[in-house]
Design goal:
- With 661 residues, the chain is α+β, with helices and mostly antiparallel strands.
- The protein has 6 domains: 1-53, Helix Hairpins (Orthogonal Bundle); 75-304, D-amino Acid Aminotransferase, Chain A, domain 1 (2-Layer Sandwich), CATH 3.30.470.30; 311-414, OB fold (Dihydrolipoamide Acetyltransferase, E2P) (Beta Barrel), CATH 2.40.50; 420-492, 5' to 3' exonuclease, C-terminal subdomain (DNA polymerase, domain 1), CATH 1.10.150; 497-572, 5' to 3' exonuclease, C-terminal subdomain (DNA polymerase, domain 1), CATH 1.10.150; 588-658, Rossmann fold.
- The protein is 34% helix and 23% strand.
- It contains 24 helices and 27 strands.
- Strands 15, 16, 17, 18, 19, 20 and 21 form a 7-stranded antiparallel sheet that branches. Strands 3-14-13-4-12 form a 5-stranded mixed sheet.
- β18 and β19 (375-381) form a beta hairpin.
- α1 (3-28) packs antiparallel against α2 and α16 crosses α17.
- The termini are far apart.
């Protein structure tokens, strides 16, 4: 690409980042990082560059892509089957493939392959690879990819393929927001696949999906194909000039291929884009096409998979880790070894079938490696003593453990329905903000404490001091973290009765219902816990289903005994003064977008419900108001509200209305 063009695109990306940062700071965080004058000047500069280059990126502040929810993803046949490449792990295999020909070597990215179609310079269609014959149409989602051009300077029909990926830094940020360990995404590819195939492209937009072009299928204008002078290199250069991010690539021959593979390999440890190898394609397009394909592979290219670095170590133990589904996962613990530049001492063994296949025993010599240079795995057991004993009881609750066949693989399960590991969601709710509000007990920490037997029921949370020495010696924990947790626990000992009722996790009883029940029972714990079905159905908002759920919970001896032990740890604050009726009494609201005056949308929902209002998830003819600080956005909820003539309120307008008598 010419130096001038490259400079223009780099400046565009720089301006987009700067302007988007300023927009987020101003609209979402109520702060300014630049003056209006500076913003306008940069905005104008970006608009001029977009006109000069003929390219507009999807995340440019000069365009707004409306979010859309659809019922399902349409299917579409590909014009020709999308085949996978044959593979090799040897440099000699690449050299043999090249022979006397030149090739283009590039990253093999690990995401989801997507085909984009442009006509008259506009993005018309995006389709996933699917099964290679039929893909899913994801056009709305592609329009909110982080770096996909919505318009390009080329005015003919352009069809290209590329990989949709989520970078490691974005993957980690998204996973950090998920407290449920079992719900965390296993790798960026899984997250990307789910993000690209969303029915609501607002979710896709938040996932920072990026697109990297790796193949041009067709470029035709007025019936004539674009002349690339018969080289793949020129195709990549053409795509770059249209504004696409193209996979990093170099021109190679049999003499230079080894050196270039080594150069790519040196980058992999710190490479932010998920990759599982390299791709080598003949640079001569006509020659590559003339070779045709087998039933499985095109003959114009080959994939290079990293040769795994193997280390020999000794098995020290197998940790059996229960999950909330009852599955008990075996994790091999071995003497630390260096692999791909990092120290490794643990690897998942996945299930009992693999444990038996490896014929594991404590003290066995193992060959270990990192799959794709990232995930620790056991390659082989050199000793095969086959002496490892499969547990007969759950390591958390001591209940019976059974081997079950799941998807043709044997797995170990805890069959005790009362195992604390199975009730992690209940413990997570118990310590959450609207319940007991105990900071420092994330789901991951709760799982760790439950696995070690520190917590078996709610009352045990208030007795963690007795395990102080064991806890401060846990990996990634310590004295400071424990002392901070203890302060949060002591603070939580004094709570409001409705918070406790909500924290118990009674089916259907939310924070607002808990408040209504406690209020009706005079905020007397004994009356609340002994409330009859007849008393409950008389309470506004508590129908037959909730009344039955509430009374059934407290009819169980186990729940009453656990509650008694919990009550010994708690004291209750006096209820706040009655809130007078306001303009929101009896009204139905929908909340969307970010909030500024409340901690989150759940807090705003509780504020509405305690004042007699109702909150639903979608805008209908029964909705009285939509609350959205961005009243001019093109969101589906805003559009629906406008269509039904439903007022859209900012938070300030809503608060003002709620304070009116």
């Amino acid at each position: 690409m010419e130096a001038k063009k490259e400079k223009e695109f780099n400046r565009m990306r720089e301006l987009i980042d700067l302007l988007n940062q300023a927009g987020r700071a101003y609209y979402q965080e109520s702060r300014e990082i630049m003056s209006n004058y500076e913003y306008d000047a940069l905005y104008d500069e970006l608009r001029n560059l977009e006109e000069t280059t003929g390219t507009v990126m999807a995340d440019s502040p000069t365009v707004h892509v409306g979010y859309e929810v659809i019922s399902q993803l349409p299917k579409e046949n590909h014009e020709a089957p999308m085949l996978s490449l044959d593979k090799t792990k040897e440099i000699a295999g690449l050299q043999s493939f090249l022979g006397d020909h030149e090739g283009v070597l590039s990253w093999k990215l690990d995401g989801l392959t997507v085909v984009l179609t442009y006509r008259n310079g506009q993005l018309q269609k995006a389709v996933t690879r699917g099964n290679g014959l039929v893909g899913e149409v994801i056009t709305n989602n592609a329009k909110v990819f982080k770096n996909v051009p919505l318009s390009i300077p080329y005015r003919g029909e352009l069809i290209l393929r590329g990989e949709a990926v989520i970078r490691y830094d974005d993957f980690e940020k998204i996973n950090d927001t998920i407290e449920d360990v079992d719900s965390k995404y296993k790798n960026p590819r899984n997250l990307c696949s789910g993000s690209v195939r969303q029915l609501n492209n607002e979710i896709t937009a938040k996932r920072n999906v990026r697109f990297y072009a790796f193949s041009l299928v067709r470029a035709v204008e007025d019936g004539a194909e674009y002349d690339f002078e018969n080289t793949l290199w020129n195709q990549f250069d053409f795509l770059t000039k249209q504004g696409f991010d193209v996979v990093e690539h170099v021109l190679v021959n049999a003499d230079t291929i080894g050196e270039e593979v080594s150069r790519f390999a040196a980058k992999i440890e710190h490479f932010e884009i998920p990759s599982d190898g390299l791709v080598l394609i003949y640079n001569n397009l006509a020659y590559g096409k003339s070779l045709g394909s087998t039933a499985k592979f095109p003959r114009n290219g080959i994939a290079f998979k990293w040769a795994d670095e193997i280390a020999v170590t000794k098995l020290l133990a197998v940790d059996w880790s229960p999950s909330r589904t009852g599955l008990i996962n075996p994790v091999a613990v071995f003497e630390p070894v260096e692999l791909e530049g990092t120290t490794v001492s643990r690897a998942s063994v996945h299930n009992i079938s693999i444990v038996k296949e490896l014929e594991l025993g404590i003290g066995d010599e193992l060959e270990v490696y990192k799959a794709n240079m990232i995930i620790p795995q056991i390659a082989r057991n050199l000793t095969k003593s086959h002496t490892l004993k499969i547990p007969e009881v759950c390591p958390v609750c001591g209940g019976p453990a059974q081997i079950r066949k799941v998807s043709d693989a044997a797995a170990l399960y805890c069959v005790n329905p009362d195992c604390p590991a199975k009730h992690i969601k209940g413990f997570t709710l118990f310590v959450s903000r609207d319940a007991m509000n105990i900071e420092g007990l994330s789901e991951e920490t709760l799982i760790k404490f439950i696995d070690h037997g520190f917590i078996r029921e709610y009352a045990d949370i208030f007795k963690l001091e007795r395990y102080r020495e064991e806890i401060i010696n846990l990996p990634n924990y310590g004295v400071k973290a424990f002392d901070k947790l203890q302060k949060a626990i002591e603070k939580a000992r004094t709570t409001a009765l409705p918070a406790l009722v909500y924290a118990l996790g009674i089916t259907g009883i939310g924070a607002a219902n808990a408040k209504a029940i406690c209020k009706a029972m005079g905020n007397d714990p004994e009356r609340v816990f002994k409330a009859s079905y007849e008393e409950l159905i008389e309470i506004d908002g508590i129908g037959e289903v909730l009344a039955k759920s509430f009374t059934e919970y407290f009819s169980q001896k186990k729940h009453l005994e656990e509650l008694q032990r919990l009550m010994e740890e708690l004291s209750f604050t006096q209820p706040k003064e009655e809130i007078s009726a306001s303009q929101i009494m009896g009204k139905t609201f929908v909340i969307t977008g970010t909030v500024n005056h409340f901690a989150n949308r759940n807090e705003l929902k509780a504020y509405i419900e305690v004042r007699g209002g109702k909150v639903t998830g979608s805008v209908t003819k029964n909705t009285d108001y939509l609350i959205n600080n961005d009243r001019t956005s093109g969101s589906s909820k805003n559009k629906k509200a406008a269509e039904l003539h439903i007022p859209i309120l900012s938070e300030e307008e809503f608060i003002s209305m709620s304070e009116e008598e």
